[in-house]
From TrEMBL:
Luciferase-like domain span: 14-188
Pfam families assigned to the protein according to its UniProt record, in alphabetical order: Bac_luciferase
Presence of the UniProt keyword Flavoprotein in the record: yes
Name listed for the protein in its UniProt record: NADP oxidoreductase
Gene3D superfamilies: Luciferase-like domain
One record GO biological process: alkanesulfonate catabolic process
Organism: Mycobacterium asiaticum
Keywords: Flavoprotein, FMN, Monooxygenase, Oxidoreductase
Domain of life: Bacteria
The keyword Oxidoreductase appears for this protein: yes
An example Gene Ontology molecular-function term: alkanesulfonate monooxygenase activity
C-alpha cells in the first residue's frame, strides 16, 4: 500500500494553522506529515519560519496516529549526539511515530549568515556519512535510553555521493520534486531503501475552475517543472499510480494552495480512500 504524507513547510503560517492542518490530515487518511529545516525561509529571509524539531514535537503532541518527520533536517544544525537524543525522545513521546529525515543542506547562504556548516558540498556529504554512523552507534547503546521503537532513517538527495549513503544507511530514500524526472535512473542506486517522492499538487477540487487552478499553481510553483502536477482526483490518481509502478511506496503531497483544510479533506475522500491497493 502507498503511504501518504502531507509536506507542509512551516513558513508564513501560524502555529495554530499548522495544528489545524495536521489534525485535518490525520482525519483525512494521511499517514504522516513532514516539515522543512532552515534557519531562515529559503529565498524569503524576511518571512517567519518555525524551528523544525519544535514544530514536529508540537504536532506529535496534538495528533494520535499521524507520523511526524522532516524533508529533511539539515545535518549541520545539530551535533549528532544531540540529534540522536532528540530523536529517541520524540519517538518515545509519540509512541513510535517519529521518522528521522536527514540531508546535507540545500541552502548554503544560511551557512554563511549564521556561521554554521560548510560551503563545500562534498565535505557536507562526507560529514553526514560520519554523523549517520555515529547516530546508529548512539542508538545501539552508546547513549541511554536506546530507542524503544525503530526510528526510520529517511535520506533526501540525488547526488552520487548521497546515493551511496542512501544504500548504506537509509530505510527510506526521498527524491525531491524538482528531480522527479531522474527517478528511473536513480532507483537502483537506492539499494534496499524504500522509495518516496515529494510531489507538488495543484488539486482541482469539486466546483473549481481547472484553468484557474493550473494558472495559479504554475505561477507559484512552475519552477519545479515535472515536480508540479495539476488535476482533479481522477487525474491525480492516474499520475500517482504511474509513480507506484516505478517503485514509489510513499508520496509527500505538497499542495499548491498551502494545504487548505478543504483540500486535505477532499483529497482524502477522493484520492487516498479510493486509491487502488495493488497497483504495482
Amino acid at each position: 500500500m502507498v503511504e501518504w504524507y502531507l509536506f507542509l513547510p512551516q513558513v508564513r503560517v501560524a502555529v495554530a494553522d499548522i495544528s489545524e492542518r495536521a489534525l485535518q490530515a490525520e482525519a483525512s487518511g494521511f499517514d504522516g506529515i513532514a516539515f522543512i529545516d532552515h534557519l531562515e525561509a529559503p529565498g524569503q529571509p524576511g518571512e517567519n519560519i518555525w524551528e523544525a524539531m519544535g514544530i514536529a514535537t508540537w504536532v506529535a503532541a496534538r495528533t494520535r496516529r499521524l507520523r511526524v518527520g522532516h524533508l529533511v533536517l539539515c545535518d549541520a544544525f545539530r551535533h549528532p549526539a544531540v540529534l540522536a537524543k532528540q530523536a529517541v525522545t520524540l519517538s518515545a513521546a509519540s509512541e513510535g511515530r517519529f521518522d528521522l529525515g536527514l540531508g546535507s543542506g540545500s541552502w548554503p547562504a544560511e551557512f554563511t549568515k549564521f556561521k554554521v556548516g560548510q560551503q563545500d558540498p562534498v565535505a557536507r556529504v562526507e560529514q553526514l556519512g560520519h554523523h549517520l554512523a555515529a547516530i546508529k552507534r548512539y542508538w545501539s547503546g552508546e547513549q541511554q535510553p536506546t530507542p524503544t521503537d525503530p526510528i526510520p532513517l529517511v535520506l533526501g538527495g540525488s547526488g552520487r555521493r548521497m546515493m551511496k549513503l542512501v544504500a548504506e544507511h537509509a530505510d527510506w530514500w526521498n527524491l525531491q520534486a524538482n528531480h522527479l524526472d531522474r527517478l528511473p535512473r536513480l532507483v537502483d542506486a537506492a539499494g534496499s531503501a524504500r522509495i518516496s517522492v515529494q510531489q507538488m499538487v495543484g488539486f482541482v477540487r469539486t466546483g473549481d475552475d481547472p484553468a484557474t487552478v493550473r494558472e495559479v499553481s504554475t505561477r507559484r510553483f512552475g519552477h519545479l517543472g515535472v515536480g508540479l502536477v495539476c488535476g482533479d482526483a481522477d487525474e491525480l490518481t492516474s499520475h500517482f499510480v504511474g509513480l507506484t509502478t516505478q517503485g514509489v511506496e510513499r508520496i509527500y503531497v505538497w499542495f499548491a494552495d498551502f494545504a487548505a483544510p478543504a483540500s486535505l479533506a477532499e483529497f482524502g475522500e477522493t484520492v487516498i480512500k479510493n486509491f487502488p491497493h495493488a497497483v504495482r
